[in-house]
């Protein structure tokens, strides 16, 4: 079972992102479960959502305590709570930022982890460029596909097309693809950005 | 609204002789073809104003709907005395659910009829003052706000009678009830703000609102009929004296109701879409004491000493009603003299507004 | 049709396929997505029904009563405080014998106000005379509504379909949505036993005094007895038509030779099954018993499932751990009480050869997560024989001690909930939410 945890703020599409990921996994004939951490809905408040993916039916309904991946859509959350709690050894982190882990004050954290599993991705910039709104969910998923391979880009694009229509669908799809290519390129070069800051 | 003026007087009484009218204008109760919706055998008290009012109102609605009627009844005197298990005195499809939900249940019936395409069947909801003014107020307001196609009739005997005469939101100031006893320096019910449900209904601007009493049964019949000209939410508030709870003679029920209107304490009027369209003028004005003296629930205002202070306040409220609704013809208002006759042709609420 | 869909939406689609004619909606977390989805289907014309936005849950159940009495298939949904607010009408619907179906998105009852999942709401109405079905998954939640209308209408008895708030309602899972054709074939047109019809008038809702009240209520018990036979029949018919086992009275999991059996209702069973598998891998003969139908309580089916575990020669007692998702203060377990009564019900059978030890564990109140880790620790304790007869899973004794100390030291100790929240925020690391 592969477990993903999303972090963001209300209004950034954190819950939608988890559902899209589940939808993408469904398209690849896998079982998926997506759910938010539940609470009153407030714009701007921290929101966490989860997605589990497996080849067998997913029976459990407990929260994800030891994720394989963390998708952090809002870096302003970084120092407010222990966002990285439970991240498995060898777990992935995809962070929405133009800065590196080091520049974000996470050098120590990064040093303890596999550098090729930690990526930053300018997801909001991609969203602004292609969608016109700072909703980083779709590009984060594109990045996730490239980083972990848990779902393929095609499945992500298909999930986007099912969920959205018109310009929104198109913009999200382009942003997701751009993010995929961004991360894929980084994976290919295998040069972790963080090392330089030590 | 088409009507034709008829004056009828018979000296020495208030009776109107049906033989003076064309056949089609006779009281529904005079017809052998009347529905007897609430038929004999019910267990109401001698002189019960509510039984009288319900019979007139519902037979009128049955004629207007050609018998295609479903009634929803709140818990209360009417429900209890009309359905002593295993008997029922209702000759129509009738549902009793709870005390506070008659308007909502009726809304559900109306929704079901609409969903099933039964636009020919109409819905009446009815309850006492307790079930309407107090515990049913939220559901009533919801029904008004949605403009559900329900005609709501409130039988107001001004207290929770069935449970032993306890004070309701409709109990008038100074009246004795089991929970506002006639003891102490301020005997009887407090002087509060009251809850004028007809005005609340008008504030919702629903298609039709009216008040009536059992003192003018032809007027009551007319209003129940008129209400069925409209679709959407409609409200009729009927004053129905309760000999037991009011401490009046069973033989005086109609007389007491008439004194309530002739003193100005209970204005009789009609309104459409939030605007008063007509009020029954007072023919012979009486001081409120004429009305109060007939009821033991006000006895403490006269014995051991006359409470002129309290009576004056009650009189003042009657004066306010007279001014507000123009109940004396010497006030220059636009309200026409109370007349009505043949049921107006059917038109729905959109047209009525 | 297979879909990856939010539980609430799956339920809305399933209910829509049942062709309800009157739907009443009053919002309360966490059922809102269900009535919103149904509202959208009606507004768009896809579902031909009257959709009423009412002014309270009391009005919602009342309107549903009126609609059902008028001969329409009627539905509403609620949770928690809303269920309590409509409680008078809930009893009324059952007493009148109206076949309405309602979803309860299980949520804790306050005070203290809490929007998260537990079973206290539905449990509060367990004596109202409604059939209560508890869904384990979103698939089951959708399917149970289809079965519910049929059960309700055959018996003339209302049915409550319970699904865990947030955990199921707000979780997106794989669901095979019943198609319109499938549901039409399974669910016949509603033929009321009693109906308000001007052409054939009856009075419904008479006052019944001592001379007949007992008999009228006996019929309510009789309907429940009939439900015990009908529910499995409907479930079997459903399985035959839709190709999957959903509903029924109980759902045993690896109980055949189990020595340690966890009894529970609702979605926690999924996590429990994962724990059972892990225990089995460690050589502990664990199993689980899901109670799908809680009212009527399926005494026979429970006994058969639990007594089925084969007797051993070791003389070790069989251990039953009942997970309670609600607290009945002043008594030691709601489901436990029914279970004990079931196991000791005299039915001519010889007593079970092994001693039975029942432990009650109150878990997941107000949305506290029931984790596999905690379950395993608790079950290990049960297996060792040192689990208390009545305990709370993952209790924070430090918070309790602090408040008790405050109460001992001053009369005006203040509101307990606020005091404990203050302690909590002072001691805990930043929560993830």
Order of helices and strands of chain A: EHEEEEHEHHHH
- Ends apart, CA distance between termini of chain C: 34 Å
Arrangement of strands in the largest sheet of chain A = 2-3-1-4-5-6
Tell me the span between the first and last alpha carbons of chain A: 34 Å
Major sheet attributes of chain A:
6 strands, mixed
Q: How would a textbook summarize the main sheet of chain C?
A: 7 strands, mixed
Mean pLDDT across the residues of chain A is 91
Give the largest interface. Answer: B-C, 44 and 45 residues
Quick check: average pLDDT of chain C?
Answer: 94
How would you explain this protein's 3D organization?
The complex is a heterotrimer of chains A (198), B (353) and C (433). Chain A has helices at 14-27, 107-111, 123-131, 137-148, 153-163, 166-189; strands at residues 2-9, 31-36, 46-54, 69-72, 92-96, 118-121. Chain A has 198 residues and is of the alpha/beta class. Chain A has a six-stranded mixed sheet with strand order 2-3-1-4-5-6, with helices on one face. In chain A, helix 1 crosses helix 4, helix 3 packs across helix 4 and helix 4 runs parallel beside helix 6 (166-189). Chain A is globular and about 40 Å long. Chain B has an eight-stranded mixed sheet with strand order 2-1-3-4-6-5-7-8, with helices on both faces. Chain B has twelve helices and eight strands. In chain B, helix 1 crosses helix 7 (217-227) and helix 3 runs parallel beside helix 5 (137-146). Chain B has helices at 49-64, 77-82, 102-115, 129-134, 137-146, 197-203, 217-227, 243-246, 253-262, 288-292, 308-325, 349-352, and strands at residues 69-73, 93-96, 122-128, 151-156, 208-213, 234-239, 269-272, 275-279. In chain B, strand 5 (208-213), helix 7 (217-227) and strand 6 form a beta-alpha-beta unit. Chain B is an alpha/beta fold and 353 residues long. Chain C is of the alpha/beta class. Helix content of chain C is 42%, strand content 18%. In chain C, the strands form three sheets. Chain C has a seven-stranded mixed sheet, with helices on both faces. Chain C has a six-stranded mixed sheet with strand order 10-12-11-14-15-16, sandwiched between helices. A two-stranded antiparallel sheet of chain C has the order 1-8. In chain C, helix 1 packs parallel to helix 7, helix 7 packs across helix 9 and helix 10 packs across helix 13. Chain C is globular, with a radius of gyration of 22 Å. The mean pLDDT of chain C is 94. Chains in contact: A-C, B-C. The A-C interface holds A 18-19, 22-23, 25-26, 31-40, 46-48, 57-63, 65, 80-83, 85 and C 3-4, 6, 29-30, 115-116, 137, 164, 166-168, 170-174, 267-271, 273-274, 367, 369-373, 429-433.
